[in-house]
Structure formats: C-alpha cells, structure tokens
Specification:
The chain is an alpha+beta fold. It folds into 4 domains: 206 residues, Heat Shock Protein 90; 145 residues, Ribosomal Protein S5, domain 2; 91 residues, Rossmann fold; 156 residues, no CATH class. Helices cover 42% and strands 19% of the residues. The chain contains 22 helices and 22 strands. The strands form 5 sheets. It has a 9-stranded mixed β-sheet with strand order 1-6-5-4-7-3-2-8-9, covered by helices on one side. It has a 5-stranded mixed β-sheet with strand order 10-11-14-12-13, with helices on both faces. Strands 18-17-19 form a 3-stranded parallel β-sheet. The longest helix is centred in the C-terminal third of the chain and has 39 residues. The protein starts with a strand and ends with a helix.
Length: 684
C-alpha cells in the first residue's frame, strides 16, 4: 500500500470545497458522470487510431446508489488509469493563489471548479470518503484502489477489477443523505446528463404489474446519445424537430418553426432554436434555451450569452468553445461567447429572411405570433433591426401585409402631409376605433393595425430611424387634422367665443380621476360628427410605453388627457347654442356689458402704469386696479356658473357628449344606463 499527501499549496482544500461549493452541490454528479463519459470517448478515440484493439461498441456509464451502505457509485468501462496516472491526475492539483480566488468566487461553484480543474474533487461536497477503483486499458495493467477521507492524505493499493474502466465510490456524509434517494439522483441526471454522448444507465426500467411498478431486466438508459442538434439538417425531417421539441418541453404547444445551427468556423456551434407561440400580453418565461458544452448541460440562464431578444426562444445551443465549468460572469465577458451571440443573431435574421422570401404566404400566416420576437429584436439589437427591415411586416385593417418599403409606396400619394412627411395612420383596436377607421378610409387613407404591447416603443424607433415618417393613431384627432395637406381656410371661433361655450360642454363631460377633458371647437362640416373625442398622440404613447416598463413613473400616474372636439357646423350643436342664447341672453348680456366695461377700466389703469416703476404708481390706482380685477373675476365666475348650470340641464348637450363617449367605448355602467333611458325620452 502507498500513502501520501495530495499535492496542493493549501491545507484547506477539502473544507473549502465543502463550505464554498455547498450551495451548488448537485453538480458533483454532473462532474463525475462527465468524467466517466470522457474516459469512454477517449477509449473510442484510441480504437479509431488503432491504438486499442478491444471492443468499444458497448461502452456505458452506470450510476447506482446503496442507501444502506450510504454510497453513490459512478462506473464506466472506458480508458481507466494506472497508479502513475492517478498520481499525476488526482494527487497533483495546481492550486496556487487559491485562497484569494476562493474568497472572491466563494458563492460560485462553477467558477471554482472550472478554474482549478476540480471536477473529480466536487465529489467531496457530499462525501466523507471517496474511493477510485480503476484499471487501465493498457495490456497487463494492474487494477488499483485510491482512497481519501477528505484530508490531504490518501492511500493507494492494488485491487481486482475484471475489465478496464473506473468506479468512483462516494461515501455520502451525514449532511448529504438527501442524495441517497432514487428520485433525487434521477432528477439530477435528467437535468445535466440527458443528452450525453455515451449511454448513461440508472437502474432498471419499470413497468406496471399487479397495480404497482416493478423493475424489469432491461437497463434504464436516461439519455439520448444522438439528440437532434448533433445530426446534420439533411438527415432530419420536420417530425424529428417536432419530436425533439416535445422531448425538451413536454407540455408546450407546437412551435412556429425552428432554426438549425451548424457552424464549424470560426468556432464550433450546433443547436436548434424554436420560435414558440407567445401571447400578445408579453407574459414570457425566459430561461428556455438550454446551453450545453459537448452535450453536457451548462445552464438555462442564458441572458448575456445570447442576444436579449432571443431569450424568448426555446431550444438548445451546444459549443465546445464554451467551457463547462465557468461562471455566468465569465461567459458574459468571454470573446468566444460574444462571437457566438452575434452569430446566432445573424443566423436567426438570415433564416427569417429566407422564410419570408421563399414562403411568404406561410410567413404572413404566422406573423401575428411571430412579430413579438422580431419587434423585441429590433428594439434591443441595432444590427438585427437593419436585417429585420427586409422582412418586418405591417398589417392593415383589411388584413393585408406589407413590408416597410411596400407600404411607403402604397401611401405616398395620399398620406404625405404639407411638410412632406409620410403619415402612417394606425389603430390599436379595430372594434373600439371602428368609427375613426371608417372616417379615415372614407378620405382614402389606409390604416395599420399596431395592437401589441411593444408597438408604442417600435413606432418611436421607426420615427427615430426614419425622420420623414410619422405615426399617428387614427383617434388622436379629427380626421381632417390627421394628415394636414394645407393650412386650414375654415373659420374658427375666437378665444372669447370658446371661453363662453366651453363651460356648457365641460359641464356634461364625465367627472372621474381617469380622464380629464379639454373642450375645443372646430368646423367639421354639417355632415361630420357633432362631437368627437380624441387623445393626444404624444401623451397617450408616453403612457403606453410607461406601462410596459413597470414601477412608478411620471406619465403612467397621470390621468388620460382627452380632447372633446365640438363641431360648430353641426345642426344639433347649433341647436344647443341657440337654446343657450334663448335662455341666457337676458342674463348674460348685462354681465357681458359689465365685464367689458370693467376690462376697459383695467386696460386704462394698466396703460397708465406703463414706463413707471412700482413705487411711482399712486397707491389709489393700485387699490382701484386690485378691486377691478377682483370684481372682474367674480363676474367671470358668475357667467361661468350660469353657462355650467345650463349645460348640466341640457339633455341634448349631454346626449351628444355621451354619443362621443359611446363611439370611443368609454360609456359604461350607470352612465350607459342613463344614456339609454335619456335616448328613449328624447325619441318620444
């Protein structure tokens, strides 16, 4: 028997492993099984070179546990080791600078293991003792047993083993007995090892018999050694891709389509990415892409490793150029990973462009489900934005699809405003904005449907990238003002006239904390709607963009600012104005005369102050001016109260406002009930 000390520069190797790696201790099984797979593949390589003449057709890795003996054993029939190789690969560990590094990365098991090549030593995270029983493939080799109890001391002795290969026997410590569980080990193997390239056997297959599960004589192989991504695309059919998708995500809906990645220069990269169906509310579960290194699972937390918008995709990426045992911070800064990320983005864009070019009808049918990926990519990746402009589609209210360039040609003649800007009209809800859409179409305009949660952000990006394009929601103004072709020649009310009429209609606007209404007056023609409710494009878009960003924000907390546009040319509006004049003229005329007189006096006093310093103005004039302004304010308030009272009691004015609210889908509950009852009264 040989005894000795493991060659490390720190006496604290095992306490460090147990203390710092404890939070990630289930990776021990990944490490030990991966080593066993490596040993098997090395033997295959030697056989292919003619350096080994034995049978390599039945290489397997076996995982078993013994609850009574408190052991977990991982066995392979791979290359094995001699006593000298154990001394070289197990007993000598380059561990310089260990303490500083371990302190820095003490919460990241992958970083520590990867930095020092400690894959085998991760077994001590759950073990009080580890045995290696191994026999080299070399002819005449002696089997040996290496044992270590978690101190730098070890012993090695000759033993018996029938065939080449290695057994790693982990004697589980009292703190880790949770791992002596069939389902626990099965779950870890399923997570990390389900696609390893060498068969991994875990117990026997089971079947139902006499109302219970019983073991059969057939080995339970937990992994698929040749998953779809390892094969050439030419060797796969659509059903193979679909089948593999459901192996990854058993409960998922059918994906929209897939992209098979197969790159060998300037780095190695294989994988299959799937576009799943995503709801329009953008409730997305990320962490669906699984990252592998030589078919060994690394992580499903791929933010920073693949472009942000592609974290919405599902599937697998495998690259031997991505080290197995590294921290996410390392992955995110590694130059190879950055190249891979950029390449994946390009491949996705190329595949989408190819689908659009070759199968446009199919592409259009899938657009509503697909667009969320493309929009997210265009918002977060400038290079992808440029590529996506070839296949990004606008859909109009007639369900026809256009590229950006095609749509530009379609609307150029009819929707270019007086400032030479191309105006894209759009709706976010065809049903709720039906009246506005129809009004626009009657004028020969086309209207887009931009109804998803990313649309406000995307149209702002379009306007930023294309300054000669403007997006205007179809209900943001009356149709005459959506695309201004020339300066208006229609007469408008004076400021004083608007001030007198505003209280009448302001009085019948809804009173709540959700909306504020600003009354305006325009000549929309006798056949136009009597009243139209619109909303500022800027404010509404800011609120919508704020809503997707979450948390407290300035625009999100503000009420909706609505414009009530009163059509002064409409007969029904004129009827309200005539009723106002008839009822209030005797009351308002003296008030108006008084207000005019007071304003004239104020104007004279203000004129007398011109060119004088404050101390040069007589005190009597100051007091008189203050008094006049106070009287004037009272007269104005009295006038406003009378106009407001008239508006509140005028059923026609209320009916016209409610009609406008109804057209916008804003009349509900008790207000809707009152409107119906009032309608019946007015019809009688």
């Amino acid at each position: 028997m040989q005894t000795g000390k493991i060659g490390v520069t720190s006496e604290n190797l095992f306490p460090i492993i147990k203390k710092f790696l404890y939070s990630d201790h289930d990776i021990f099984l990944r490490e030990i099984v991966s080593n066993a797979v490596d040993a098997s593949q090395k033997l295959k390589t030697l056989a292919s070179k003619g350096e080994y003449n034995g049978d390599v057709t039945n290489l397997k890795v076996r995982v078993k546990f013994d609850k009574d003996a408190k052991t977990i054993t991982v066995s392979d029939n791979g290359i094995g080791m001699t006593a000298e190789e154990i001394d070289r690969y197990i007993n000598q560990i380059a561990f310089s600078g260990a303490n500083e590094f371990l302190e820095k990365y003490k919460k990241d098991a992958n970083a520590i293991i990867g930095h020092f090549g400690l894959g085998f030593y991760s077994s001590f995270m759950i073990s009080e003792k580890v045995d290696i029983i191994t026999k080299s493939y070399k002819e005449g080799s002696q089997a040996v047993k290496w044992s270590c109890d978690g101190t730098p001391s070890y012993n090695i002795e000759n033993t018996e083993r029938d065939e080449a290969g290695t057994d790693i026997v982990m004697h589980v410590n009292s703190d880790s007995e949770e791992f002596l569980d069939e389902h626990k080990i099965g779950d870890i193997l399923e997570k990390y090892c389900k696609f390893l390239p060498v068969p991994v056997i875990y117990g026997k297959k089971k079947e139902w018999k006499d109302g219970k599960q019983v073991e059969t004589d057939e080995d339970n192989q937990i992994n698929d050694t040749e998953p779809a991504w390892t094969k050439m695309p030419a060797d796969l059919k659509d059903e193979d891709y679909q089948s593999f998708y459901h192996r990854l995500y058993p409960m998922a809906e059918e994906p929209l389509f897939y992209i098979h990645l197969n790159v060998d220069y300037p780095f190695n990269l294989t994988g299959i990415l799937y576009f799943p169906k995503i709801k329009n509310n953008f409730e997305v579960q990320k962490n669906k892409i699984q990252l592998y290194s030589n078919q060994v699972f690394v992580t499903d937390s791929v933010e920073g490793i693949v472009p942000e918008f592609l974290t919405l995709l599902h599937g697998v990426i495998d690259s031997p150029d991505i080290p197995l045992n590294v921290s996410r911070s390392y992955l995110q800064s590694d130059s190879n990973v950055k190249k891979i990320s950029s390449h994946i983005s390009k491949k996705v864009a190329d595949r989408l462009a190819e689908l659009f070019k070759d199968k446009r009808d199919e592409f259009e049918k899938k657009w509503d489900d697909l667009k969320i990926f493309i929009e997210y990519g265009m918002l977060t990746d400038d290079k992808f934005y440029d590529r996506a402009m070839k296949f990004f589609l606008f859909k109009n209210t007639e369900d026809k699809y256009f590229t950006f360039e095609e749509y530009e040609k379609l609307i150029k003649d009819t929707q270019t405003d007086k400032d030479k800007k191309l105006v894209h009209l759009y709706a976010t809800n065809k049903e709720e904005q039906y009246t506005f859409i129809e009004a626009a179409r009657e004028k020969g305009y086309d209207v887009l449907v931009l109804d998803d949660v990313l649309a406000p952000h995307l149209i702002s990006r379009f306007e930023q990238k294309h300054p000669d394009h403007q997006f205007v929601r179809v209900d943001s103004d009356v149709v005459e003002n959506l695309i201004k072709k020339e300066d208006s020649a229609k007469e408008e009310l004076s400021w004083e006239q608007k001030q007198e009429l505003s209280p009448v209609f302001q009085a019948v606007c809804p009173e709540n904390n959700k909306h504020t209404f600003l009354v305006d007056f325009q000549d929309l023609g006798e056949t136009g709607s009597p009243m139209v409710i619109t909303q500022s494009e800027f404010m509404r878009r800011m609120k919508e963009m704020s809503a997707t960003q979450g948390g407290m924000n300035f625009y999100g907390e503000m009420p909706d600012n609505m414009n009530l546009v009163v059509n002064i040319a409409h007969p029904l509006v004129k009827k309200v104005l005539e009723a106002k004049d008839k009822k209030l003229s005797k009351t308002l005329e003296p008030l108006a005369a008084d207000i005019t007189a007071k304003k004239a006096e104020v104007s004279e006093l203000e004129k007398a102050k011109e060119g004088k310093k404050e101390e040069e103005v007589p005190q009597a004039d100051k007091e008189k001016l203050d008094g006049l302004n106070s009287e004037l304010a009272k007269l104005e308030e009295s006038k406003r109260e009378k106009l407001t009272d008239f508006g509140k009691n005028n059923k026609l004015a209320k009916q016209l406002v409610d009609l406008a609210l109804l057209a916008n889908g804003m009349l509900k509950g008790a207000d809707l009930d009152k409107f119906v009852k009032r309608s019946v009264e007015l019809i009688k």
